[in-house]
Amino acid sequence: MLGGLEVVHVPDIRDSTKFIEKLRTKHGLKTQYACDCGAGIGRVTKHFLLLHFETVDMVEQNSQFLEAASSTYLREEKQNGRVGQMFSLGLQDFDPVKGRYDVIWCQWVLSHLTDSDLVKFLHNSAQSLKHNGMVCVKENVASRGYVVDSEDSSVTRSAEVYESLFKKAGLKIIEVQTQTGFPDGLFKVKMWALQSIEFN
Ligand SMILES: C[S@@+](CC[C@H](N)C(=O)[O-])C[C@H]1O[C@@H](n2cnc3c(N)ncnc32)[C@H](O)[C@@H]1O
Question: Which of 60, 145, 187, 199 has the most CB atoms within 10 Å of its CB?
Fold first, then answer.
């Protein structure tokens, strides 16, 4: 799921945990219901979100990953209801229920959306938050502009590009943190917590 870079898993979970704890203690984030976007088989759900949230929904474009999650990787959590709904669709088509989530967590997936789909997705996500809920984005960032990978049709955006798209979607930045402890030679990774300018 991490393209052979299992070495990033431990520092990834460690810094995500610090980030969510900061959102809880400094910004009063509640921890009842999260949604893991671009979930894959549920690495982030299993090792991070379920440690902090009572229930976690998953959205993933590849239905085989969700099947692996419910039959094997997250079987018990699916059976006992801690993993809730599994949506087998692309984020560009995800129209979440309004007012449902405390956190929408998007990690290493937004590089697969076009700018316009990303803006629409972020806008819809913000509408699906409870009061004081947050959209969290954790993504690789380029040093400037866009870096296109024609092999997997992904695009790595700079932090400035992301931040201008957040603004376009009507979101403001509540907190931002840079990932630490990754091996040299990888893209820098940033985490943002976002809320709607309109509703919060
Ligand atoms: C690099 S993996 C990251 C998985 C997980 N977020 C993690 O950090 O372990 C990217 C995942 O996003 C999924 N994906 C790609 N494009 C997507 C889209 N448009 N909507 C939803 N999921 C997508 C892929 O199928 C894959 O499971």
Answer: 60
pLDDT tens-digit series, residues 66-77 = 999 999 999 999
Pairing, β 55-59 against β 154-157: unpaired
Q: Where are the domains of the chain?
A: 6-196
Give pLDDT, residue 3.
Answer: 59
CATH topology of domain 6-196: Rossmann fold (3.40.50)
Chain centroid to CA 80: 23
Instruction: Name the closest-CA residue to atom 19, ligand 1.
Output: 90
- Residue 185 CA, chain-centre distance (Å), reads 23
Q: How far apart are CA 198 and CA 200, in angstroms?
A: 6
pLDDT at 138: 98
Considering only CA atoms, give the Rg of the chain.
16
Distance 111 CA to ligand 1 centre (A): 9
